[in-house]
Design brief:
Layout: H1 3-11, E1 23-27, H2 32-42, E2 46-51, H3 71-76, E3 80-84, H4 90-100, E4 105-108, H5 112-117, H6 122-128, E5 133-138, H7 153-159, H8 162-168, H9 181-204, E6 209-213, H10 214-223, H11 242-245, E7 252-253, E8 258-261, H12 266-275, H13 281-284, H14 291-296, H15 298-309, H16 314-323, E9 328-330, H17 341-345, E10 349-354, E11 358-363, H18 387-393, H19 398-410
Parallel strand pairs: 1-2, 1-4, 2-3, 4-5, 5-6
Antiparallel strand pairs: 7-8, 8-9, 10-11
Length: 420
């Protein structure tokens, strides 16, 4: 990492963080890319978020207190600086190239062909900055017939079998997992790939172009559990992991609510039968005496557990399972998870003062470090908040900076606020 980047790291309070001095140009929006770069930003990377004049689309997702500062945007873009550039304008392309020349990584979810039409290619950027790493987030790998197709969360869930698996596991109708499941998983893969490329560059001195495709990544992630008999050639049976696909694997109803219970190992089953007054059951029921047998008979065993769980209250079962050392937990809701006593004790949800949005609740970085811990240093930025600041750091001519900011201000973007 260059001295300029190290100086930038110190300037922005990154000197104690693990990724201090790593500058990332983030040309992504929505969830996948921003999730990846926020994790890296929490660990100290200087993430410069490149936005179009209309901004990241998540800025518009309600609820919000002010325009362009939607709730999801606030949760995906802290510790970043926002630069607005209209890459259809030549001087903005020049400014972008100047920034890329001083950066370690460019991560984007704009198709390379679209950027090439604007005059931005990996070959040109790497000629100016051979150490540049370009992470390209795409829906489908460039070698296959789906290359270039649009990819959205719901489409990827369907293509990787998730709604069909939910039906097989007991849902009456196909439905989607209600979160940005694919975006966040692929975002984690992108962050891992990025850091791996940085490590390789520190040994080789060379950057590289990396493609991270959603479909292939999620196929590995989702189907890995369910290869089943297709693991072998010729196949030894159907696909699917029987234990997790059984319709009876779900939170169990109690007298007054629901409980999540995992009776899995030999020890768990012995302890469970002792707890319910059937101490000889493990030795007499062949279905529970091995993991293989329990997997084969998972549906019937879980159905029996469901009937037993209905006989006591949730609190009674939690106390009994805790004494028996069997994993159990209450089924929380979106509302109650925020007040969970463990999460409250570790400070998972933090109230902070945002310079424009007032008091907001954020989730802290989840990991604990003895040294160089992740930190929250910057609030999610206003649109174009740091345009002039970052362009100055990149050595863009002051007159050109004024021209860019003025042009964007005429279009209602890149209004300097909070130190720009």
């Amino acid at each position: 990492m260059s001295a300029a980047l190290e100086n930038s790291a110190t300037t922005h309070g990154l000197h104690a963080s693990a990724l201090a001095g790593l500058r990332i140009l983030d040309m992504t929006n929505v969830v996948m890319g921003p999730y990846a770069t926020q994790i890296l930003a929490d660990y100290g990377a200087d993430v410069v978020k490149i936005e179009s004049p209309s901004g990241d689309t998540t800025r518009q997702i309600p609820p919000m207190r002010h325009a362009d500062m939607g709730c999801l945007f606030l949760h995906l873009n802290r510790n970043k600086r926002s630069v607005v550039l209209d890459l259809k304008v030549p001087e903005c392309v020049e400014a972008f190239v100047a920034m890329a020349s001083q950066s370690d990584v460019l991560i984007c979810n704009v198709r390379p062909a679209a950027l090439a039409r604007l005059g931005i290619t990996y070959e040109d950027l790497s000629a100016r900055n051979p150490r540049l790493i370009w992470i390209s987030l795409v829906g489908f790998g460039s070698d296959g017939p789906y290359a270039g197709r649009p990819a959205y969360e719901d489409l990827l869930q369907g293509l990787t079998g998730m709604p069909a698996m939910l039906v097989q596991a007991g849902s009456e109708q196909p439905h989607y997992v209600p979160l940005s499941f694919n975006d966040r998983v692929v975002g984690l893969h992108a962050a891992i790939a990025l850091l791996s490329a940085v490590h390789w560059r520190e040994r080789s001195g060379r950057g590289q172009f990396i493609e991270v495709p959603m479909f292939e990544t999620m196929t590995q992630f989702t189907i890995g559990d369910h290869m089943g008999g297709q693991t072998f050639e010729p196949p030894e049976g159907p696909m699917g992991y029987q234990r997790t696909l059984t319709k009876e694997r779900r939170p169990y109803a109690t007298l007054d609510g629901f409980i999540c219970l995992v009776v899995y190992t030999d020890k768990h089953w012995r302890s469970f039968f002792e707890a319910i007054g059937q101490p000889q059951r493990f030795d007499t029921d062949e279905r529970v005496q091995s993991l293989r047998s329990r997997t084969t008979h998972a549906g019937a065993l879980y159905a029996e557990l469901a009937e037993i769980m209905r006989t006591r209250s949730t609190a009674d079962w939690l106390e009994l399972m805790n004494r028996a050392d069997i994993p159990a937990a209450p089924m929380l809701t979106l509302d109650s998870v925020v007040t969970d006593p463990h999460l409250e004790a570790v400070g998972m949800f933090q109230l902070v003062e945002h310079p424009t949005e007032g008091v907001v609740r954020q989730l802290r970085p989840p990991t604990q470090w003895s040294e160089s811990p992740p930190t929250v240093r910057l609030p999610a930025p206003s649109l174009g908040q740091h345009t002039a600041e970052v362009l100055r750091e990149a050595g863009v001519d002051p007159a050109q900076i004024d021209q860019i900011v003025a042009r964007l201000a005429q279009r209602g973007a890149a209004k300097p606020r909070h130190g720009s």
